[in-house]
Sequence to fold (299 residues):
Amino acid sequence: MADLTTRAVEAQLNAMGSQTFDVGVFIPSKDMMITKTWDKETVLKSVGYLKYQNQRGAHIYVRPAGEHNLSMIDDLNRGGIETLRKGGVEPAAVVETSPGNFQAWVKHHKTLQKDVSTQVSKELASQYGGDPSSADWRHYGRLAGFTNCKPKYQQPNGYYPFVMLREARGQEYSTAPQRVAQAEQTLETRRAEEQQRRQQFTEHTPASNPRATKTINDFRNDGRYGGDHHRIDLAYATYALARGVSSKDVEGAIYTRDLSHKGPARRQDDYVQRTLSKAEETIAMNPQRTQVKKNDLAR
Fold:
């Protein structure tokens, strides 16, 4: 007969219903996460290994591998779980990660693309009081049957509380189609707005400036930056502003790439303004390094 840990693990994996899982073994002393991608049978065969790691102070986590049909809402209390249920977001699995603190896995009616999965997770966390920092398509949750060995949970007798599986119904939640459709519409609207913004800046004709002979695309194609767009944006902004290019033209150049991953328009604007401010600080602190060079005028 399977022991209690194996039974808890099997029940949680059955409720989540994925074909394969990423099992994370986080070792605090090394600040290292070991990730194993296993099917359910392999996870169950590996419970002994996971117990060994847990006894040595490792935390045991799980998430569905690849794109999936689940969202995890973290850091809920008992009232939060009941509010989910009343709102038509009936959990497929509820895990008590520490006394009085819960994670709810909710199951959508279909596999979601990554951006849609993250958007749904964010909307659910926002509406039901979950942890927003855990709301994305790839976030781990704790695997039931092992201890939560954070030092703050250590009991007077030296033991740690077990992560308990409180529900394992495995059903899809009743409002899934409407919520997923809403998230898809939000993303579609955001993409359309972003395309319109990029088009606006693409059509803007910057003022001619003979001292700035390089465009932002020259920086994007420069292998020294390794495709790191944060470095590219800052390097171009520093170069251009030091050579008298207007802030508006520099903004326009940065906006010619897709910034939608930064979030809504306000956050994109904040990113661009921070980049310009940092470039101006760099110029002020290093006037000799950023001054116009003769070969800039000769090109």
